[in-house]
Amino acid sequence: MFTNCNALETVKFASNATASANNMKNMFLNCESLGKNTPVDEDAIDGIKTFSTSKVKYMDGMFYGCSHLKSLDLRSFDTTNVTTSRKENTEPFKYALDMFNDCVRLGKIQTYSQYNSTKYFKIEGWTLNFYMSGLYS
């Protein structure tokens, strides 16, 4: 959707903008300036707190290369149907490959996996692997 929009610093979504979305793969890929002039506690993606993701299957590379993002509030993200587009994936949990790769300034991610606490959502491509199984902030 916004892939390679290098000069994009902020974006605003209507409250129902993602209601029918089923693929968010590479949505903000290489949006290097996203969040560049945004205070740390303010989201560069206005409306992300109300993203409807219950139908989304792919989130691979969603924020890959967003090197100015400082924080994200992903508590509204329903990852029940998320899997990887990588064909050789055989791991027994939900998976988003390289979701935060090269997000070098990202210091705060708020998540809440209320949908099934026994299934883990693995996010690879950050400094450390990050498992969404509860509230992190």
Question: Summed up, what is this model?
Answer:
Helix content is about 0%, strand content about 15%.
Molecular structure report:
The protein is globular and about 35 Å long. It is mostly beta strands. Helix content is 0%, strand content 15%.
Q: How many strand segments? A: 7
Structural class by secondary-structure content: mainly beta
How much beta, percentage-wise? 15-25%
Strand order of the largest sheet: 4-6-7
Topology:
Layout: E1 11-12, E2 45-46, E3 71-73, E4 94-97, E5 108-110, E6 121-124, E7 130-132
Parallel strand pairs: 1-2, 3-5, 4-6
Antiparallel strand pairs: 6-7
Features:
137 residues; mainly beta; 7 strands; 0% helix; 15% strand; disordered C terminus
